[in-house]
């Protein structure tokens, strides 16, 4: 096997678009998928908006049998199956339920909280003494590995099939875990990604923490403002993203399309020591994660063209930029271009890393930078660190050779992945 790992397929179910072509168009146009939810108003949420993929009934029937749809009440599984199946087929791989297990292909598909609505439904039935009415899928819809189990059965993967969970770092971590499995020779292909449920039972805790914006309920598309001086908190979102990673020899041997190469990356934790905590990343850990990602990928700081940041539209945005400048030793107009998808999708929590990895690779493959919407006025602390023209306000057509994607999660956990434009 080659020591090189490439991306041969992608799929996405994001708040602003479902499907790869639709998603690319939404990125180019800077389209927001953040909407007002009357249910949140009825429940007295301060923040009554969020990001939720729009999945019509006829689309559901393309991915699930009538039997599978019966009693299906887990939005995360729905988003994950759509994006994962799309990535598999986008890679030119077949789905044949009569074929034997594919021992060379595996799945690492993460989540944070799965099946919250199914849990609520189950709790109500159990409390009413109606346990027998739970249905045969209540367990698989509420276990964390339900998403990888669904995909494993649909695709017939016989290699490692598992689920990871590391808060907002989940998707990027899954990608790096799959990368390492291929690099170690234990698999030829790994479907990697992450998903997250939507709704009040997922978003309520964040509303209680008062870290969501409450003054944009009547203008939801303006609410998520990464890097901006007027940012007042992150908008919660949901969805899923998926990427098919493959050993280069395997991809070339079957004539697969190659989107980009994964050079490597780093996963670490700050241990909640020093300035790190359960909810805030250790600055030292973030800097170490970035520098180790570069070392592991065999590149220098000066080679990075673009950063797709974590950048949630909170007061941590300026701290994140500071950490990047320290780790890269680049400031002002020497700093790479940087953008955040969360202005368009909100913060999709456990799904954010994978959706943003898909967006990052699309930028690289298609040669453009999507805009940082709602960032009319850059935060003054960020202006002191980097030139404002490093933060695109409109789509820019440009060649991208190397892109760094970062995710930082609750629990003081970090992941940075390095993508490179593919050259034979």
TrEMBL record:
The entry describes its oligomerization and partners as:
Homodimer.
List where in the cell it is found: Cytoplasm
- Which controlled-vocabulary keywords does the entry list? Acyltransferase, Cytoplasm, Transferase
Which enzyme class, named as a word?
Answer: transferase
Tell me the ranges covered by the Ketosynthase family 3 (KS3) domain, including all copies.
2-421
Read off the CDD domains from this record: KAS_I_II
Query: Is Transferase set as a keyword in this record?
Result: yes
What reaction(s) does this enzyme catalyze?
a fatty acyl-[ACP] + malonyl-[ACP] + H(+) = a 3-oxoacyl-[ACP] + holo-[ACP] + CO2; (3Z)-decenoyl-[ACP] + malonyl-[ACP] + H(+) = 3-oxo-(5Z)-dodecenoyl-[ACP] + holo-[ACP] + CO2
Q: What's an example GO cellular component term for this entry?
A: cytosol
* Family indicated by similarity: Belongs to the thiolase-like superfamily. Beta-ketoacyl-ACP synthases family.
Q: Which domain of life is it from?
A: Bacteria
Show the Pfam families listed in the entry. ketoacyl-synt, Ketoacyl-synt_C
Gene Ontology annotations of biological process type: fatty acid biosynthetic process
Q: What SUPFAM superfamilies does the entry give?
A: Thiolase-like (SSF53901)
Protein name per Swiss-Prot or TrEMBL:
3-oxoacyl-[acyl-carrier-protein] synthase 1
This enzyme's EC code(s): 2.3.1.41
Tell me the GO molecular function terms.
3-oxoacyl-[acyl-carrier-protein] synthase activity
């Amino acid at each position: 096997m080659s020591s090189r790992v490439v991306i041969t397929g992608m799929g996405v179910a994001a708040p602003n678009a479902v499907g790869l072509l639709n998603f690319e168009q939404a990125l180019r146009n800077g389209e927001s998928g953040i909407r007002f939810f009357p249910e949140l108003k009825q429940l007295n949420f301060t923040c009554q908006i969020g990001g939720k993929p729009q999945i019509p009934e006829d689309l559901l029937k393309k991915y699930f049998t009538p039997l599978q749809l019966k009693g299906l009440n887990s939005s995360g599984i729905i988003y994950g199956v759509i994006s994962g199946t799309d990535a598999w087929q986008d890679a030119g791989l077949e789905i044949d339920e009569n074929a034997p297990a594919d021992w060379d292909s595996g799945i690492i598909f993460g989540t944070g909280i799965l099946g919250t609505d199914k849990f609520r439904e189950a709790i109500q039935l159990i409390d009413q003494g109606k346990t027998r009415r739970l249905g045969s899928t209540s367990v698989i819809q509420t276990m964390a590995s339900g998403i990888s189990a669904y995909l494993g059965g649909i695709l017939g993967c016989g290699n490692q099939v598992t689920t990871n969970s590391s808060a907002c770092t989940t998707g990027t971590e899954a990608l790096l875990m799959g990368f390492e499995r291929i690099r170690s020779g234990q698999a030829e292909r790994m479907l990697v990604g992450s998903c997250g449920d939507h709704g009040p039972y997922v978003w309520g805790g964040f509303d209680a923490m008062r870290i969501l914006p409450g003054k944009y309920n009547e203008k939801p598309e303006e609410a998520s403002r990464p890097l901006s001086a007027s940012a007042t908190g992150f908008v919660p979102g949901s969805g899923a993203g998926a990427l098919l990673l493959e050993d280069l020899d395997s991809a070339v041997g079957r004539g697969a399309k190659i989107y980009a190469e994964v050079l490597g990356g780093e996963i670490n934790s700050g241990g909640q020591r020093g300035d790190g905590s359960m909810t805030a990343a250790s600055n030292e850990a973030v800097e170490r994660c970035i520098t180790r990602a570069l070392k592991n990928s065999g590149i220098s700081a000066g080679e990075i063209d673009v950063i797709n940041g974590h950048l949630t539209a909170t007061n941590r945005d300026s701290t994140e930029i500071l950490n990047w400048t320290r780790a890269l030793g680049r400031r002002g107009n020497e700093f790479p271009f940087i953008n955040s998808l969360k202005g368009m999708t909100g913060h999709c929590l456990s799904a954010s890393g994978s959706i943003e990895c898909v967006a990052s690779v699309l930028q690289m493959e298609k040669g453009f930078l999507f805009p940082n919407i709602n960032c009319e006025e850059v935060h003054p602390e960020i202006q002191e660190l980097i030139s404002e023209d490093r933060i695109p306000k409109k789509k820019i057509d440009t060649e991208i050779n190397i892109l760094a994607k970062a995710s930082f999660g609750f629990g003081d956990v970090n992941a940075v992945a390095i993508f490179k434009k593919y050259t034979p």
